[in-house]
Write a structure and sequence with these properties.
Immunoglobulin-like, 49% strand, endosome, 5-stranded antiparallel β-sheet, Ig_E-set, disordered C terminus, Vps26-related, Vacuolar protein sorting-associated protein 26C, 22 strands, mainly beta, Arrestin-like_C
């Protein structure tokens, strides 16, 4: 006796805004007439937090697990107890996307390492204890509404041994080089690419590669305080081998939508912001941090009262490593 359950949303891309209505049908296909004790559908949205054991220890991290924050929790009965006929049966549904309790707002969908914001529909077909109940889930995405774009704020940066955060004695052993670049804007929308250019003026050693790294910073609260961790999202190589000097190399990075989100600051957790554009030069196996920084505060598509929406939490690193 096989039962196939599918939750079909009316919107193909499964992207919704706060205040809209998520609607669709639950389709159940039965190979034979099937008895059930009721069909229910639940709408759930939550923020799941995990404490890093690097900050509070393994046992403390397990013991002081942070309670999930409920954003949506609605239920409806699609059908009372009865029988499902052979073939396909459809049950329509709709839920308003409104958060009635604190924090009284719906955060953007985000899949991080220590912070996860998810929204899903769950259908349960209840059956007697002799027959196994059937459950099906379907995730969908919440996004902030588009807003008027801010004018671009171009930022220029320069990397050389003099800008490295090293002592004068340590700088003596560093090969001479000069790298400059431009970011097209410090205000970036998470649904649009991050662009700019980098130029190698001269180097004493051959360059192996130039890479752009995207990093997120997540902060979670616990009994002992706050756990703050930076994790890599993606790493993109923009140049390979010893590049031609004084030639602008374009920077073009598409931000992975589900793994990035606007800067979010609440009393229990925080995603970003990273307030410095950190340039790092990789010479051999040593990482040298550049002393000059420029602020990067990307703007997403919503601004609300008291919320820092739209600042993407990323750190761009221009990496150069010498050829072996």
């Amino acid at each position: 006796m096989s039962i196939t359950v599918e939750i079909k949303l009316r919107r193909a891309n499964k992207v919704y805004y706060e205040g809209e209505t998520v609607s669709g049908v639950v389709q159940i296909v039965c190979g034979s007439e099937t008895k059930h004790d009721g069909i229910a559908l639940a709408l759930e949205g939550s923020v799941n937090l995990q404490i890093s054991n690097k900050n509070v220890g393994i046992f403390e991290a397990l013991y002081n697990s942070v309670k999930p924050i409920a954003l949506l929790n609605q239920h409806t009965d699609l059908a009372p107890s009865g029988k499902l006929p052979i073939g396909a049966s459809e049950f329509p549904f709709e839920f308003p996307l409104i958060c009635p309790k604190e924090p009284k707002t719906l955060y953007e969908t985000y899949h991080g390492v220590f912070v996860n914001i998810t929204y899903m529909l769950r259908c349960d077909i209840k059956r007697s204890f002799l027959a196994k109940s059937v459950q099906k889930t379907q995730q969908f995405i919440i996004q902030y509404r588009p807003m008027v774009e801010h004018p671009p704020k171009e930022v220029q940066f320069s990397i050389s041994p003099d800008t490295l955060q090293k002592t004068a004695k340590e700088r003596i052993s560093i090969p001479r080089f000069l790298i400059s670049g431009t970011l097209d804007s410090t205000d970036c929308c998470v649904t649009k690419p991050f662009t700019g250019s980098v130029t190698v003026h001269h180097t004493e050693v051959a360059i192996k590669s130039i890479e752009i790294q995207l990093v997120r910073v997540e902060t979670c609260g616990c009994a002992e305080g706050y756990s703050r961790d930076a994790t890599e999202i993606q790493n993109i190589q923009i140049a390979d081998g010893n590049v031609c000097p004084k030639v602008a190399i374009p920077i073009y990075m598409t931000l992975p939508r589900l793994f990035t989100c606007p800067t979010l600051i609440t009393k229990n957790f925080k995603v970003g912001p990273v307030r410095k554009f950190g340039n790092q030069v990789l010479l051999g196996s040593e990482i040298l941090t550049v002393g000059s920084h420029a602020q990067v505060a990307p703007i997403d598509e919503k601004v609300e009262q008291g919320r820092h929406c739209g600042q993407e939490t990323f750190l761009v690193i221009v990496g150069v490593s010498e050829q072996s």
